[in-house]
Design brief:
The chain is an alpha+beta fold. It has two domains: 1-57, 2,3-Dihydroxybiphenyl 1,2-Dioxygenase, domain 1; 70-122, 2,3-Dihydroxybiphenyl 1,2-Dioxygenase, domain 1 (Roll). The protein has helices at 14-25, 73-82; strands spanning 4-11, 28-31, 38-42, 52-56, 65-69, 86-94, 98-104, 110-116. The protein has an eight-stranded mixed sheet, with helices on one face. The longest helix is centred in the first third of the chain and has 12 residues, at 14-25. The chain is globular, with a radius of gyration of 15 Å.
Length: 122
C-alpha cells in the first residue's frame, strides 16, 4: 500500500513557524544537514501519525505537500501521467534518503512520491 509518509510545510519565516508549531502542538524541529535550508519535524511519539519537514517557500502559490512512499518512482510517475496527472518535478536524489518526484493530480493538487534508497545521490 502506498501510504502518506511525510508532509512538507513551505514557509517564509522558518524561525517564526518553528516557534508557532512548537508552542501550539509541541512539535520538535531539527535542522537537516543536507544541501538546503530544511528542518525535520517530529510531530509526536508512539501515537499513529506522520512526521514532516519544513523548508523556505520558493513560490508564493506553494502549499502543504503530502508525499507517498512507493516501490518505484519511475513506474509511479508513468502511472501518474497515464491517469491524467502531470509530473512537475522530475525524479531527483535526496542524498542518503531516496528518490523524490512531485506531481499535479487532474484537479491541480500537488503531491510527492518517494522511493527509499540510502545510496541515492552517491
Amino acid at each position: 500500500m502506498n501510504r502518506v509518509v511525510h508532509f512538507d510545510l513551505p514557509v517564509t519565516d522558518p524561525e517564526r513557524s518553528i516557534q508557532f508549531y512548537s508552542d501550539v502542538f509541541g512539535w520538535k524541529f531539527h535542522k537537516w544537514e543536507g544541501p538546503m535550508d530544511y528542518w525535520l519535524i517530529t510531530t509526536g511519539e508512539g501515537a499513529p501519525g506522520i512526521n514532516g519537514g519544513m523548508g523556505r517557500r520558493q513560490d508564493p502559490a506553494q502549499t502543504v505537500t503530502c508525499t507517498m512512499e512507493v516501490e518505484n518512482v519511475d513506474a509511479t510517475c508513468q502511472a501518474i501521467e497515464a491517469a491524467g496527472g502531470q509530473i512537475i518535478m522530475p525524479k531527483m536524489a535526496i542524498p542518503g534518503v531516496g528518490w523524490l518526484a512531485q506531481f499535479k493530480d487532474p484537479n491541480g493538487l500537488i503531491s510527492g512520491v518517494i522511493q527509499s534508497d540510502p545510496t541515492a545521490g552517491q
